[in-house]
Amino acid sequence: MSSGSWSHEVAVNVAAGRMFKAAMLDWHNLGPKIVPDFIAGGSVVSGDGSVGTIREIKINNPAIPFSYVKERLDFVDHDKFEVKQTLVEGGGLGKMFECATTHFKFEPSSNGGCLVKVTASYKILPGVADESAKAKEGITNHMKATEAYLLANPTAYV
User: Transmembrane region positions?
Assistant: First the structure.
């Protein structure tokens, strides 16, 4: 079993607060609307959106080797636009990973947009290839889809 981590940054032309709300806090609702070819649905399994909340995202893409992801919110800072979440079920847990956490931080930039900083930490099970490049691509796609939606809908998530 090997441990690993990676960091990734995505620049977007939407304010940090709007991106944080749409891409993190409400992704289980927004994702299926804006990327239905990837996300079939989402829901809050337990909790109210604060620390300890568990959310489920159902995957609708045969290229992904799992059909859903359940994540627990471990840290939420509405003022600094930060979220840390832990994979608790699905998403390759037990098949690809022993454990995985992801930390997102949305930092305002001088152009009115923001820089999304992501750090993932994980333990890969023996014999499983590290696919961090695919994970980074997925994060970029997630943020760019959210950005496109928010630019097209300027009153959403204000």
Answer: none
Strand order in the sheet with 82-90: 2-12, 114-124, 97-108, 82-90, 68-77, 54-59, 39-46
For 98, the token pair is 């022993």
Tokens of 42: 């989402």
CA–CA distance, 36 with 85 (Å, rounded to integer): 23
C-alpha to C-alpha distance for 12 and 81, rounded to whole angstroms: 14
Distance of alpha carbon 98 from alpha carbon 120, whole angstroms: 14
Using one digit for the tens of pLDDT, what is the confidence trace for 107-154? 999 999 999 999 999 999 999 888 889 899 999 999 999 999 999 999
Backbone phi, then psi, for 155, in 5-degree steps? -100, -5
Placement of tokens 């994060």 in the chain: 139
pTM here is 0.93
Token pair in block for residue 54: 């568990």
Q: Partners of 82 in the beta sheet? A: 77, 105
Nearest to 83 by CA among 68, 71, 69: 71
Q: How far is Cα 53 from Cα 101, in angstroms, rounded to an integer?
A: 15
